[in-house]
Amino acid sequence: MSGPSPQPAQGLARTEPMARFGGRLATGLVEVTSDPAALESAGYWAVAYDFEGRLTCARFAEVRPDPAPPRSEGWLGPDPAGWHSSLSRDAYTAGVRRIREHIAAGEVYQANLCRVLSATLPDPDRSDIDALTGLLAHGNPAPYAGTIRLPEHGVEIATASPELYLRRRGRTLSSGPIKGTGRTEHDLLDKDHAENVMIVDLVRNDLGRVCATGTVTVPELCVVEKHPGLVHLVSTVEGQLREGAGWGETFAATFPPGSVTGAPKASALRIIEALETAPRGPYCGAVGWVDADRGEGELAVGIRTFWIDRSSGEPVLWFGTGAGITWGSDPEREWDETELKAARLVAIASGRTPV
Fold first, then answer.
1. Quick check: 20 and 69 in contact, CB under 8 A?
2. Concatenated DSSP letters of 132-182
3. CA within 13 Å, CB half, 125
4. What is the distance between the alpha carbons of residues 261 and 142, in angstroms, rounded to a whole number?
5. Do residues 100 and 328 lie in contact, with contact meaning Cβ atoms separated by under 8 Å?
6. How high is the pLDDT of residue 11?
7. Residue 194 lies in a domain
């Protein structure tokens, strides 16, 4: 006779709404809304913003210090051979070549081409998204790691994002765009630096739409950051939010994040829509928290991010990976970059020890 289904180590059932960011655990769901103005009201909110524009803001009654969940029996990953990509290698490299044609025609300077991976989870009772967060915390620690679990609202996200989309402290806004990826610092090319500078200029423009004139600055440009298995070039852009502007105006000015779209953003979005064959969902959107009482918030770009879709009856795990394409891009190298970004995290989620 079998025993009870395993529960996550922190004592919360897999279906109980919760959020976990920055060493804090939020429980006791109060309300869920798609209105960004709610983030200016009161309370602690978890925020999930899909790339396609679906915004979910969930207010919780209780927030307490809590470390990342331990590795537990609450997670059984997919078959490592069971992952499928929305774009094959041939389709992806053809997409890179097509973007280079758009660049040659003067339509865009850079565009981010992504593909989405999916795999069926074998046991619904061992598909706790917060347990996956625990595995990621041990195998791939990240500065903006966290969980949002709202099963009744179709939101189950575990992120190991290294990239800051927006941080707000009072009226100060900051963003930390990443562009440029390699296994080591020596792998970074002139193309990576140029790409980072292009996106910094785009983020400066985005923040300038919602910040007071003359307040947008770039305190750091093309700093090398080391993460498990790879390095990134990261810059910092800051500004002072203008009077009367809040989260709604900030999202309208800056979303989707510039680092995962391209420059100019409008042209890049049009090209992305034509080339990509699956919605990005939480991938390349935003995920994080807002404390309206303190006037603070921290949202990551939804990269290195997993989510679960249960709409078909059996749980499916999703993960996105991509690369920024410029005139200097080599199609095969860009494919390899998407593989590099995915390999370690997919291995962890599939239950294998990453190299």
1. yes
2. HHHHHHHHS--TEEEEEEEGGGTEEEEEEE--EEEEEETTEEEEE-EEEEE
3. 5
4. 22
5. no
6. 54
7. no
Assess contact for 98 and 113: CB atoms under 8 A: no
Residue 12 within any structural domain of the chain: no
Q: Does 206 score more than 50 pLDDT? A: yes
Question: What is the rounded CA–CA span in Å between residue 44 and residue 217?
Answer: 29
Q: Which pLDDT score, from 0 to 100, does residue 353 have?
A: 55
Q: Give how many domains the chain has, as a whole number.
A: 1
Phi-psi region of 170 (alpha: psi -120 to 50; beta: other; left: phi over 0): left
62/129 Cα distance (integer angstroms): 20
What is the domain range of residue 82?
Answer: 18-66+76-172+262-349
CB 312 within 8 A of CB 347: no
Smallest Cα–Cα separation from 108: which of 94, 98, 93?
98
List, for residues 127-146, the tens digit of each pLDDT value.
999 999 999 999 999 999 99
How many other CB atoms are there within 10 angstroms of residue 259's CB atom?
A: 28
Residue 341 lies in a domain: yes
pLDDT at 68: 77
Question: How deeply is 107 buried, as exposed, middle or buried, from its count of CB atoms within 10 A (0-12, 13-18, 19+)?
Answer: middle
Mean pLDDT, to the nearest integer, of 200-205?
A: 96
Nearest to 324 by CA among 208, 189, 228: 189
Q: Higher pLDDT residue, 342 or 9? A: 342
Q: Two tokens at 93?
A: 């490299």
The answer to whether the beta carbons of residues 149 and 19 sit under 8 Å apart is yes
Whose tokens are 């600055």? That residue is: 217
Answer whether residue 253 is part of any domain: no
